[in-house]
Amino acid sequence: MKNYIKALSLVICGGFLLLTFGCEKEIVNSSIHNESPVEINNPPNDFVVNSIVNPCYAGLFDSIQVHNGLLKFVDMDHLEDVYNCLEYLYEINQQEFEDAYGHLTLKQMDSMELVVGFNHWEPYEDFEDLFSYSSRREYIENLIVAFLDQDNPDWENDPDDLDDLDETMRTLVNIEGDLIIGSDVVNLINFQGFEAINNGMSSERSENCKRWGREITRPMVTSNTRIRHKTKFNGYFPRNTVKGKVVHHRLRSNGKWRRSRATLYITTSGSRSRDVVNCSTSWQMGSVNGPRNRRSLKTIRGNWGQDGAYRSGEVGSTATVGSGSNVFQHHQVIVW
Question: Which of 19, 52, 151, 297 is most buried by its number of CB atoms within 10 A?
């Protein structure tokens, strides 16, 4: 599993993967298996559960430039293609480890990571090294590692909450959250007119609809395990998305919390409107991912280059931990 970026020419030959990335300007990360712990074998039409061919292609990264510490993409399509390719390379990295050691128990898989030196972030780090580039992903990851190394971390100050970008998008922006699309410098953290909603509270309350919102909770699963469950919608440039993510943590014998593998499943549902003023019309959408034996899992549904808005109580996600009769399930909805 060495150096995914240098080996990109080996990846672009194709092959199918049970995970959907971008397709026709639509972001979809989804996966489904017959052993799913929740009953979605026949999901409604607004849910996406399918497969696509490898999105990487030769010369994709050659068109990226670096200007004053910012990555420059040719246009929105170029940014989308690079994002989708990095998502794919990340999935290959994860799947190779799971294929090799999936016969082990979850705790044994955690231990095997140390034995073989498995690096969850290798495709991202290869990409960053390719451009000698300091990304926000690396910055946030270092903060998370230091945070979890505390004896009693304050979960309300989890560095993962500092922004709403996923690890792939964090890889593409600098520490401040900037990148260049065409000739425009774009910040993906602070938007003009940004509506800050934290756990249902808004600084600028809107009666009808909002363009950004999130809900983050950290329920205990057992006495020594907990999850970070995040639901988010974003109607701002460059991606109009509904996203759900679950991260599993285990309290180790040394008293430290660590991200650890569990059987995870995540679903989202939402109602998006192109009318960003009144949300007068809406389009139902949702996505699923799992089950996977991983430390974290996300699912995204949305569109590149489109605005959107959402109504209170119409975006939610469900995180599931475990399988069979030993299942913990947590559902949350964004309201204001």
Answer: 297
